[in-house]
């Protein structure tokens, strides 16, 4: 059977299953039930996934295109996507509309500012193809002009189009190991709209003037045509920053701009400190599919390099400036001000509870007072920043950072401007992902209408539409989190299933950090692989032969204190068994009481 590159397949994807003695195609799920093709298929292996154009039954003589073979991790990932009703391919009317757009790029239209002489570059992950942003930075005396070009999705995706309707249905592009479900057809998101190198592209450009301290002096927003010089990756730009003389980038037009990225990125990071932005020192988890035919997912640590942090500062700057632009038009009579990402500040009781719990833990461990949070004299950002990032108490530091992150409610999209605690902004928009978030497309439409001084409703930007886009964005954010959790569980299943085949004495013991405790759960971050697992208190009580009681926010202990688990402790665990009914792994503490480290 032919095997395609999954990430390039556009037709809808179907699973081959055995049903009533026949092999059939399951096109998706609804309320837990499969949706099936009308006719059986032949010569396929149950559990595989195939490209299935427009739901048409595969004929007997056809050789189907297999996008994920049965028994592979990729097929399990496709199954996760199918159960979540993630749409992989596109209907014919959407593809047809995309093809018509590609026939006329419209880069020569009047009204576009010509910035093709500026050496823009994109900086993204090595394998990224949907390039949303390109940047160029130049000096102006002691000041800086930051040009941030965003893929001009709004000029192509009109408000009455099938493409926008489909984007609202999806809400965002979904990312899983080895599988991407794009919000827009790839001929657009990786072709016409993407800021690909060596070709003219339309863009919505922010020019932000910064003073010598990195503070915003002035800004403007306009449509332009740009010509990106190169598609660069984070690691390559970091190598240039670390040793310019050995990097091929040093000979390119964009070399000085990339040198200024480091300067401006650090200035903006310093400026963020004045807004009490918390800088967490976390190692993210990255799931990798070693090969298309691999039976397992691998877990990798993914610590961001400096280039990613500097680039993030430019993106944050643009979205904060964009929110200022949207808010500036609130009273002009054009209608709705815009779309925003809001993040409420933690409530006072949460902050007080965290501070008092830290003080109690410090006292229990006999640590110096400097481990306490001095709320009267320092912000939470200052406290987190001075926690040690190495040494013997690194586990405690990581756990306290995690506890601080858990305070407050999650961020969300809204039609009302409100503060974003996480980025320290009075208002924050989402211009920067117009091909990956439907919110980005509509935000651009609102900005363009305001730029043209057109009333938003006259431009088709109704309250109903904006509310639908906000709902789609929030729904998609939740779904991406669920997909990530499901893929994490899949990686854990692969890891622990192999260990369960061994005799108990031969199963490895894994060390981790206790990140949190509750009456029912213990949250543990493993060292290797760097993934979070849960230990269930009733299971531990049964295996340890003693009841465990939550005696403080950060401490779980037996009545006689012979068994104690505290946030920041080092704990060792071993696979005990898999509980099929609840679909969870039961891990056993092997060091009895956890060790304070």
- Major beta sheet, specifics? 6 strands, mixed
Rounded to the nearest angstrom, the distance between the terminal CA atoms is 54 Å
Q: What number of domains?
A: 3
Indicate the overall shape: globular
- Uncertain residue segments: 1-9, 57-61, 331-335
Outline the structure in words:
With 597 residues, the chain is of the alpha+beta class. It has 3 domains: 2-70, no CATH class; 94-342 and 413-486, no CATH class; 498-596, OB fold (Dihydrolipoamide Acetyltransferase, E2P), CATH 2.40.50. The strands form 8 sheets. A 6-stranded mixed beta sheet has the order 1-6-5-2-3-4, covered by helices on one side. Strands 20, 21, 22, 26, 27 and 28 form a 6-stranded antiparallel beta sheet that branches. It has a 5-stranded mixed beta sheet with strand order 7-14-13-10-9. The protein starts with a strand and ends with a strand. The relative contact order is 0.10. Residues 1-9, 57-61 and 331-335 have low confidence and may be disordered.
Produce the secondary structure layout.
Layout: E1 2-3, E2 13-19, E3 22-30, E4 33-36, E5 49-51, E6 65-68, H1 73-83, H2 92-102, E7 113-114, E8 121-124, E9 133-140, E10 143-151, H3 153-156, H4 162-170, E11 174-176, E12 179-181, H5 186-192, E13 200-210, E14 216-227, E15 230-233, H6 234-242, H7 255-274, E16 284-288, E17 298-302, H8 306-327, E18 340-342, H9 348-365, H10 380-386, H11 394-405, E19 412-414, H12 438-451, H13 463-500, E20 510-517, E21 521-526, E22 532-536, H14 537-544, E23 549-552, E24 555-557, E25 564-566, E26 569-579, E27 584-589, E28 595-596
Parallel strand pairs: 1-6, 7-14, 8-15
Antiparallel strand pairs: 2-3, 2-5, 3-4, 5-6, 9-10, 10-13, 11-12, 13-14, 16-17, 18-19, 20-21, 20-26, 21-22, 23-24, 24-25, 26-27, 26-28
